[in-house]
Write a structure and sequence with these properties.
Length: about 400
C-alpha cells in the first residue's frame, strides 16, 4: 500500500494522546494505514460477529486482552466500549496505546465525545487525494480518468474497474451502513435519493426540490443528507457570510467526496460518456473542492471552505478563509487558459473589498499549463495538490 499523506499527523497524535480515533468512509484505507503504522499493536475488527459479541457482552474482559493497547477497528459497532476505555486510560495515560477506527462519523463521534473527551485525538481519512493516487504504478493519466476513477484505494491497489467495484460498494453501503445508521424501511427510495443527489453535485442544495423529486418529505430529505454526511459520502459547502448588507444566497452547495462514486450513481462508466456529459463541469468542481478539503484534512486543519454567490448569480466557486485574508478560487473545465477566467472572481473581489483582504485569486482548470497573470494564478488540474491550501 502507498504512503498516505495523513500518516505523519497520525503518528504525531499517537505521541501526544493515549488514544487516536480515525474516522472516514468505509474502504478509505483506515485499517491498512493503522496496521501499517502500528505493527506491534494487536489488531481486532468489531465487524467480526464473535469479536463484536465479546466486546458487547463483556467489555472489561474484551479490553483486558490488550494490556498494552490495540488497534480496534469499526469501534462504533460497540460504542459502549469507549466508556470502559476511559477507565483504562485514566489509570494508564501512556500515549499511543489505543488506535480506534470507525466509518460512521456521528455514531462514533457521540460515544467518543462523551467518554474520551481530552483523551483522544480525532482525525479523518478520506479517499485518496491526487498526490496519493500518483504513487500507484498506473494512476489516471487524464482529468476525465481522474474524475471517473475517484479515489477509493482498492480500485488502484487491485487494478479494478471503477464501475464494478463501486457497484458493490453502493450495495454494501445501502444495505448495511444505512440500516445501522437509521431505521430506513424503503432502501430503494434511499438509493434513488443518493442518485438524485449525485445529479446535484456542485449545485445549490434545494431541499424542497430534492424531496419532491424523490417523493419524500422535506424533513426526510434533510435527515437523509445528514446520513450521507455522517458516512462521508457527501458534504455541504456553506455559503460565505459577510457583514456587508449584500443579497447573498443562504443555500449550501452539495459536493461528493468521491467523484468516481458520483459518476457511477449518474451511470457514467466511460471517459467518453463523461467527456460529453452535461454535468462534467460540476463534477470537476466537486473534484477540486474535495481535493482541497482532503489536503487540509490530511494536515489536521479545519476546512474553512465556503463559496460566494449573490442572488443575482455572481459567484466564486470556492473561498478559502485564512488569517491573512481570503483566497478566491474559480473552477473551469476548459483546457485553454484565458484572462476571462478571472472575470467572476474579479467582481467578487470588488464585492469583498471591505472584508478581510483578498490574499490571492486562483483558477483551477482542465488544462496542463501553469501561468501567473496579473489577475492571479492559473493552475492545472494535476497540480491542485501542489498548492499550499493551509491556513498560513
Amino acid at each position: 500500500m502507498i504512503q498516505r499523506d495523513l500518516a505523519p499527523k497520525l503518528l504525531a497524535a499517537a505521541e501526544l494522546f493515549p488514544a487516536v480515533t480515525l474516522t472516514g468512509p468505509r474502504q478509505s484505507g483506515k485499517s491498512t494505514l493503522c496496521r501499517g503504522l502500528f505493527p506491534n499493536h494487536p489488531y481486532v475488527n468489531l465487524e467480526a460477529p464473535d469479536e463484536r459479541g465479546f466486546a458487547l457482552s463483556d467489555p472489561r474482559g474484551f479490553l483486558a486482552q490488550f494490556p498494552d493497547g490495540a488497534v480496534i477497528d469499526e469501534v462504533q459497532r460497540a460504542p459502549e466500549i469507549t466508556s470502559y476505555l476511559q477507565e483504562i486510560i485514566d489509570r494508564d495515560p501512556r500515549p499511543g496505546r489505543w488506535i480506534l477506527t470507525g466509518s460512521q462519523n456521528f455514531a462514533l463521534h457521540e460515544s467518543v465525545s462523551q467518554s474520551l473527551a481530552g483523551r483522544t485525538a480525532i482525525l479523518h481519512l478520506l479517499p485518496l487525494c491526487w498526490n496519493e493516487l500518483t504513487r500507484f504504478d498506473n494512476p489516471p493519466k487524464t482529468l476525465d480518468e481522474a474524475i471517473l476513477s475517484g479515489g477509493y484505494p482498492r480500485i488502484f491497489d487491485k487494478g479494478l474497474k471503477p464501475a464494478d467495484w463501486l457497484s458493490s460498494y453502493v450495495a454494501t453501503y445501502v444495505e448495511r451502513d444505512v440500516r445501522s445508521l437509521s431505521n430506513i424501511g424503503d432502501l430503494q427510495a434511499f438509493q434513488r435519493f443518493i442518485e438524485l443527489c449525485a445529479g446535484r453535485t456542485g449545485q445549490l442544495l434545494n431541499y424542497s426540490s430534492l424531496a419532491n423529486d424523490c417523493g419524500v418529505t422535506q424533513p426526510t430529505a434533510k435527515f437523509w443528507i445528514g446520513l450521507l454526511e455522517a458516512s462521508f459520502i457527501a458534504f455541504r459547502l456553506r455559503p460565505f457570510h459577510t457583514n456587508l448588507r449584500k443579497r447573498l444566497t443562504k443555500m449550501p452547495k452539495l459536493h461528493f467526496y468521491d467523484s468516481g462514486l458520483a459518476c457511477w450513481l449518474l451511470n457514467i462508466q466511460t471517459t467518453e460518456q463523461l467527456r460529453s456529459h452535461p454535468l462534467r463541469g460540476l463534477l470537476f468542481e466537486s473534484w477540486v473542492a474535495s481535493e482541497i478539503l482532503k489536503h487540509r484534512t490530511n494536515l489536521g486543519e479545519r476546512p474553512n471552505l465556503s463559496f460566494y454567490r449573490t442572488r443575482s448569480g455572481l459567484e466564486s466557486d470556492l473561498l478559502l478563509e485564512r488569517p491573512k485574508g481570503i483566497t478566491l478560487i474559480e473552477v473551469k473545465a476548459s483546457q485553454t487558459p484565458s484572462q476571462s477566467m478571472f472575470k467572476a472572481i474579479g467582481l467578487v473581489a470588488e464585492h469583498l473589498e471591505h472584508e478581510p483582504g483578498i490574499l490571492d485569486s486562483m483558477v483551477v482548470y482542465g488544462g496542463d499549463k501553469e501561468q501567473k497573470r496579473t489577475a492571479g494564478q492559473i493552475i492545472p488540474w494535476s497540480k491542485v495538490c501542489k498548492q499550499t491550501w493551509t491556513s498560513e
